[in-house]
Design a protein that fits this description.
The chain has about 700 residues and is an alpha/beta fold. Helices cover about 20% and strands about 25% of the residues. The mean pLDDT is about 85.
Length: about 700
């Protein structure tokens, strides 16, 4: 029964209701029809009332309410800026504190999505003391006993007075001056590794990294709950130094904190842990402990007392990276290829046995962030679909004892998701009948150079990570980090939001299995390729950086080389000038060279041949990608440097950056902040944006 219809029907005289019941309920049916329209009208009236408040209004109303208070829309690149509701709701509260450092810091976090810290540089100017306003912390002479001030000098948490700097802060050159406000932004985030087996060097020495290399640990940021609180080092993903960890061990060490160590037979509580510099000392490490567990957060090393080898030593820590790409403990459930039941594997169980049981079709899910060292092989029969994946928010490490040989029959599909693979190559065997087969790599890391040395250098820099020997194979690579690829003819490779690293711009990133001939057809979008490329056909390259170069006497004639150029397109990408690719559309450095020649050729036709060549070479030398770090394992790996030319930092089709971190939308985040600074920065103050990472 419809309550609204009942209410309307009861308003009728009882005589009418009796007669209506006797004659089949036509009047009742009419009331139900009227009640539906009344319900719609009532809902509309209720919504009109709700639309007067930002907390309850419909999504389409939020911009109109924002317009009433002068709210300016932003680039929709973060969760907060995609919906203006929260910002409009907070606008009045923010404007009441307009111009204060705390509000500027809150705005920076809201509109960029990055951790931020605001610094009023005039607070740290060398000044003569005024007795009515004594500033005992503002000392011209540095206190050499103050370790923290020395540790954090010239950072966002600087505590040392400086002489005045007259350069403009907008250029990121000048800092310490009376009108200057600095907004430090942490472009890198902290990603967790939970309950991972420590890498064993010997019975006394271990490493946090499952790859067996030194790694810098970073802070797990503590959330700030009060807008009146400026960020402190514990609130941002800062690299953890030895002195900081030693002085504030209780704030960083613990199961839910930045790092933690646990073992079955060791006391790893905070009272039995100390911090030391465990650098190399000959064949061993310096400062090995006698009685306590020792940690070095800069090198990511652990040492235990002699004579007591730990049992099941597991670590929890955090490392820095630009975005969720490659294997990692982040949300990936929407990328799973197959649903339904699965075979679960945990530490101590055989991964090969689970794969063998599921090779006729099924899902094998690794339920922890453990380390699995095995010799793997897999044969997927015709039309079967197999997925090997890490459980959501886990990152297991697969240590291969040699190549992982995979045989795919026609019509079969194999998906790898969320894995960190080291020690060997993935090889799609040439066996099997003719036909199409599919290999998917999603959110995986195939370590460039196969594995890393203790210092983080690639062990086999010339070796590819993935070799496709079977014709008819389609490969889909999404949000991955991997070394070079080799693919035979009649294969199709699609790469999106990934980083292909041949460990050197002169290495071979993509080619035939012999490393010289043309690999299969390739399509690449929003990616970074470090190394040379030779393909049968480049169907599409969009928002991509090809960081490739030739060596003296190189057997390759071009760094990026497509054999068939009658079809395909290269758009909004960086491609070296001496490359052979399909038609280019707004690519660099071509676009910059054309603009420079057009500007210099005045009047038209006045440039000589040598002048044209000189301008071309100069522009080519200026407009090229610059990375903060090129080596896998470093936090800023693959990130465009701050001095990278604007033609590349804003060269994508949506004016974001080219390359693997296109979807970070870093330029738009910075633009959002500059828009807000125009509204909230106090009169006569100047602001500058600084990248802390």
């Amino acid at each position: 029964m419809n309550p609204e219809a009942d209410k309307l029907y009861q308003l009728l005289p009882a005589l009418y209701r009796i007669r209506d019941t006797e004659q089949g309920g036509a009047l009742r049916a009419l009331c139900e029809v009227l009640a539906e329209d009344i319900a719609v009208l009532r809902e509309n009236l209720d919504q009109l009332y709700d639309d007067q408040f930002i907390e309850t209004c419909a999504d389409w109303v939020a911009p109109y309410i924002g317009d009433l208070i002068g709210y300016r829309t932003l680039h929709a690149v973060t969760e907060r800026t995609r919906s203006a509701r929260a910002e409009v709701a907070n606008t009045i509260a923010y404007r009441r504190r307009k111009g204060t450092a705390t509000v500027l810091e809150q705005l920076a976090r809201d509109v960029t999505g990055w951790n931020a810290r605001v610094v009023e540089f005039f607070q740290w100017l060398e000044t003569s003391q005024y007795m009515n306003h004594v500033r005992p912390t503002n000392l011209v002479t540095v206190d050499l006993r103050n370790w923290e001030a020395l540790e954090r000098r010239d950072t966002a948490f600087n505590g040392i007075a400086h002489s005045v700097d007259m350069r403009r802060i907008e250029t990121q050159q000048g800092r310490y001056n009376i009108p200057n406000i600095g907004l430090f932004l942490w472009r890198l985030d902290a990603f967790s590794l939970t309950g991972s087996p420590a890498y064993r060097v010997d019975d006394e020495r271990y490493l946090f990294s499952p790859l067996g290399s030194d790694t810098q640990l970073v802070t797990r940021p503590e959330s700030e709950t009060d807008i009146s609180h400026l960020a402190e080092p514990i609130n941002v993903p800062e690299p953890i130094s030895r002195r900081v960890l030693h002085q504030s061990l209780a704030r960083y060490y613990g199961p839910q904190l930045s790092l933690f160590v646990e073992a079955d037979n060791l006391d790893t509580s905070i009272g039995n842990v100390k911090v030391c510099h465990l650098s190399d000392q000959g064949a061993t490490w310096a400062h090995l402990p006698v009685s306590k567990v020792t940690i070095d957060p800069v090198l990511g090393r652990i040492a235990v007392p002699p004579g007591r080898p730990p049992v099941n030593l597991h670590v929890t820590c955090h490392y820095g990276f630009s975005m969720p790409t490659g294997g990692g403990e982040y949300e990936r459930s929407k990328t799973f290829a197959l649903g339904g039941g699965f075979t679960s594997v945990t530490q101590g169980q055989s991964l090969q046995a689970a794969l063998t049981a599921a090779q006729a079709g099924g899902v094998v899910e690794i339920g922890d962030s453990g380390r699995y060292q095995e010799t793997l092989s897999l044969t997927v029969p015709a039309t079967a679909k197999v997925e090997l994946r890490a459980a959501n928010e886990h990152r297991p490490t697969l240590v291969l004892n040699g190549d992982w040989t995979i045989t795919l029959a026609p019509g079969s599909e194999l998906t790898l998701n969320g894995l960190l693979i080291t020690g060997g190559r993935l090889r799609i065997d040439a066996a099997g009948a003719d036909g199409t087969r599919l290999l998917r790599l999603r959110h995986c890391t195939l370590v460039p150079g196969l594995s890393l040395t203790r210092e983080g250098e690639p062990v086999s820099p010339a070796e590819p990570s993935l070799v496709i020997e079977r014709e008819g194979t389609t490969v889909e690579i999404d949000h991955c980090v991997l070394g070079g690829l080799r693919a035979v003819d009649h294969t199709e490779v699609s790469i999106t939001n990934s980083l292909v690293d041949a460990t050197s711009p002169t290495g071979v990133a993509y080619a035939a299995p012999d490393g010289l001939g043309a690999g299969g057809v390739i399509s690449i979008v929003n990616s970074t390729v470090m190394g040379k490329v030779h393909t049968k056909r480049l169907d599409l390259a969009s928002n991509t950086i090809f960081a490739a170069a030739l060596t003296n006497g190189d057997s390759w004639s071009h760094p990026v080389w497509s054999d068939q150029n009658q079809q395909g397109c290269c758009r909004f990408s960086f491609v070296p000038l001496n490359s052979i690719v399909p038609r280019r559309y707004r690519c660099q450095p071509d676009l910059a060279v054309d603009a420079a020649l057009l500007e210099a050729d005045q009047p038209k036709g006045s440039l000589t041949g040598p002048e044209t060549q000189a301008i071309t070479l100069a522009t080519q030398a200026r407009v090229r990608p610059a990375f903060t770090a090129r080596r896998y394992g470093l936090a800023a790996y693959g990130q465009l440097a701050g001095h990278c030319p604007e033609e590349i930092r804003r060269g994508a089709d949506d004016e974001s950056e080219m390359g693997v971190f296109h979807d970070v939308f870093a330029p738009q985040r910075e633009d959002n902040l500059k828009i807000r600074l125009q509204e909230y920065l106090r009169f006569a103050l100047e602001a500058g944006l600084f990248h802390a990472t």
